[in-house]
Amino acid sequence: MTETNQNAKLEEEPMATSEEAEAAETAAEEESATKADAEEQKQNAEATPAEEGGDEKKETDPKTEEKAADAEPDYKAQLAELQDKYLRKLAEFDNYRKRMAREFMEARDQARRATISDFLTVYDYFSMGMAAIETAADVAVLKQGMEMIWAEFQRVLEGLNVKEVESVGKPFDANIHEAMSQEASDTVPEGVVIRQWKAGFKIGDKLLRPAMVVVSTGKPSEPEPEPAKEPEEEEGQKIHVNVEDEETTEASGSEKDTVSES
After folding, report:
1. What's the Cα-to-Cα distance from 112 to each of 38, 104, 107, 117, rounded to whole Å?
2. Are 213 and 197 in contact (CB under 8 A)?
3. Separation between Cα atoms, residue 177 and residue 191, nearest integer Å
4. In a domain, 180, yes or no
5. Were both Cys, which of 94, 142, 197, 208 would link to 212 (CB 3.0–4.6 Å)?
6. Mind listing the pLDDT tens digit for each residue in 66-108?
7. CATH, residue 210
């Protein structure tokens, strides 16, 4: 019902109650809302096909497709580029590894040559000493030659920053000493090195070889006296055994006499 019809009806029926008037107004409002919804749905339905057609046109447009293709990244090209970079880095690392190994070998050979060249003088002195042994008759000359060799050897070790570990008369230290045995001593306190078997050496602060030493256990302990035996008990046992032996002998003799008489 339209608003005009409702008004006309209200004029024709002036005697209607207030409740009926309110119900009529509510019905009119609902009808107008229904019409508005229907018109809105119609407008939406008309606009939707146009938009869909526009979308289809955009999808089928070749220019749009070319632009989209240009915007997408070329993954194959990127993969090929990354593989090329990886192979180059791998080759560089392999060359670096070979170069470092070669340089390490050269540095070790140089250090070996420098060390051996320092000991060649000691070798020369020792060769002269060995030759002098066959001709020299004086022991003092041989002793002097050995002292020269020893002094040269000490000089070379000092040049290489090698020092001998002090051991004899020093407290035992497990960091620089290696105990080979222990001995009792009346003069050397316990835990102190008595003598050295092999010398130990250090290069700077690092240990090359520990010194092999003998460590003191202190003064020797006195042997404990053995407990004294009790002679009386032992003699009594012996006498008792002798008496039993005599009784056994007499008994056997009497048995023999009885048998002979029978």
Report:
1. 103, 12, 9, 9
2. yes
3. 12
4. yes
5. 197
6. 666 566 778 889 999 999 999 999 999 999 999 999 999 999 9
7. 2.30.22.10
Q: Which domain holds residue 42?
A: 3-59
Q: Are 142 and 130 in contact (CB under 8 A)?
A: no
CB-based contacts of 220, cutoff 8 Å, min separation 6: 184, 186
In a domain, 238, yes or no: no
Which tokens go with 85? 């970079």
Torsion angle, CA of 19/25/27/32, rounded to 10 degrees?
-170
Residue 34 or residue 92, greater confidence = 92
Q: 186 near 219, Cβ under 8 Å?
A: yes
- Structurally, the chain folds into a number of domains equal to 3
Please report whether residue 184 resides in a domain.
yes
Over residues 115-163, the pLDDT tens digits come to 899 899 889 988 888 888 888 778 888 888 888 899 999 999 998 899 9
Q: Among 190, 195, 196, which Cα is nearest to 220's?
A: 190
173 inside domain: yes
The reply to whether 138 and 80 lie within a common domain is yes
